[in-house]
Design brief:
alpha/beta, Rossmann fold
Length: 318
C-alpha cells in the first residue's frame, strides 16, 4: 500500500516518467493525453475525470496507482482541459450531446486496450463515472473491472423536479442560449473560494492545487456549463436508470459514494448499485465531499484501500 503520508510527491509538477501527448479521435478531434507506464505492469487503468476537470488535478492519485504497479492513462474530455472547446467561449463547458462523449470513450478504450497490458480497469469520477457507466450498460466497452467515484447518475436536488429543470433548459436553448453559460461563476477564477471548496474537499492544500494549475497552464480552466450541457445531462442521466440494462451488467464495479454529496444524488447511486449484480459500494459520510481522491489523507487513503482491495479480488495479475 502506498504511504499516503509521504509528502515527497509533488502534486504541482509533472513527474519526468510521465508522457504527455495527444490522441486523435476518429473524427479528427485532438485530445490531450497522459501516459505513465510500467516496465512490468500489474495491469492498466484508464482514468476519466469529471466536469470541468483536467488530468493535473489527479496526479497524486495517478502516482498511487502507478506505485501499485499499474499503467495509468488519462485523457481530457472533448471540450475540457487541454482537449479544446466545443463552444465559442473558452470558459463555458459546452457539448452537443453526451452521446458524443460516449463515442469518444468507446474509440479511446478500443485503442487503449490494444496497446496497454491487462487486466484493464476503467475509472471514472463524477461526469466521468456517468459516461463510463453509460458505455458499460450500453455494452460498448468491456473492461475487466470498473471503478466509479461519485458518479453523476442524477444531479443533486435543489428543490426543483427534474422535468421542470430540463424544460427550463430546453426553453433557454430554443431562444438561442444553448451555448451560453447556465449559471454565473461564483468565484474569482484564480483565487480559491471556500464555499466551493466545501462542495469538493476538506483539504485546503489539495483544493489550492487546482488554482496553481490555472496559473501554470491557463488553457485548462473551465467555468460553468452551457444550457445545452444541462439539458442533455438530464436526458443522459435518465438512460442510466434503465433497470433491465443495469441488471444485465455483469462487469465487476466498485462505487465510491458520499452520503452528504451536494453535487450528485446519493440515493440514485445506491439504487443503481443494488440493481447491478457484480457491483459493490464503499460509502463515506460527512468526512468526504465530492472529490474523494482529493480529500484529506485519512479519507482518500480509505478510498484507495477499497480500490486496491477490490482490484486484487476481481482483476488479479495475469
Amino acid at each position: 500500500m502506498t504511504d499516503l503520508k509521504d509528502k515527497r510527491f509533488d502534486r504541482r509538477s509533472i513527474p519526468p516518467e510521465i508522457v504527455e501527448g495527444s490522441w486523435i479521435g476518429p473524427d479528427g478531434w485532438k485530445f490531450r493525453r497522459l501516459d505513465w507506464m510500467q516496465d512490468r505492469p500489474r495491469g492498466s487503468v484508464l482514468f476519466m475525470t469529471g466536469r470541468a476537470d483536467f488530468y493535473e488535478k489527479y496526479l497524486e492519485t495517478f502516482h498511487d496507482f502507478h506505485t501499485q504497479g499499474w499503467n495509468v492513462t488519462s485523457v481530457d474530455w472533448r471540450g475540457q482541459g487541454g482537449s479544446g472547446r466545443c463552444g465559442p467561449h473558452p470558459h463555458v463547458g459546452h457539448i452537443d450531446d453526451f452521446a458524443t462523449w460516449v463515442e469518444d470513450l468507446v474509440a479511446l478504450n478500443d485503442q487503449w486496450r490494444t496497446s496497454h497490458a491487462g487486466p484493464h480497469v476503467v475509472l471514472g469520477h463524477s461526469l466521468g463515472g456517468h459516461l463510463v457507466l453509460r458505455a458499460l450498460i450500453e455494452q460498448r466497452i468491456h473492461p475487466d473491472a470498473a471503478i466509479l467515484s461519485a458518479p453523476m447518475l442524477a444531479l443533486a436536488g435543489g428543490g426543483m423536479p427534474e422535468w421542470a429543470a430540463q424544460a427550463i433548459a430546453k426553453f433557454m436553448c430554443a431562444i438561442g442560449r444553448a451555448k451560453r453559460r447556465a449559471w454565473k461563476p461564483n468565484e474569482d477564477p484564480l483565487e480559491p473560494y471556500v464555499p466551493r471548496q466545501a462542495l469538493l474537499t476538506h483539504d485546503a492544500d489539495r483544493y489550492a492545487d487546482e488554482f496553481f494549475w490555472f496559473r501554470e497552464r491557463p488553457f485548462v480552466r473551465l467555468g460553468p456549463a452551457s444550457w445545452r450541457w444541462v439539458e442533455r445531462a438530464y436526458a443522459s442521466t435518465r438512460k442510466l436508470r434503465d433497470r433491465h440494462r443495469l441488471m444485465q451488467m455483469d462487469i465487476p464495479v466498485l462505487v465510491l459514494a458520499m452520503s452528504s454529496d451536494e453535487l450528485v444524488d446519493h440515493a440514485t447511486i445506491e439504487r443503481a448499485v443494488h440493481l447491478m449484480p457484480k457491483a459493490e459500494m464503499t460509502l463515506f459520510g460527512p468526512e468526504s465531499a465530492h472529490e474523494i481522491f482529493r480529500e484529506v489523507d485519512e479519507v482518500r487513503g480509505a478510498a484507495l484501500k477499497a480500490c486496491f482491495g477490490f482490484l486484487d479480488r476481481v482483476a488479479p495479475r495475469r
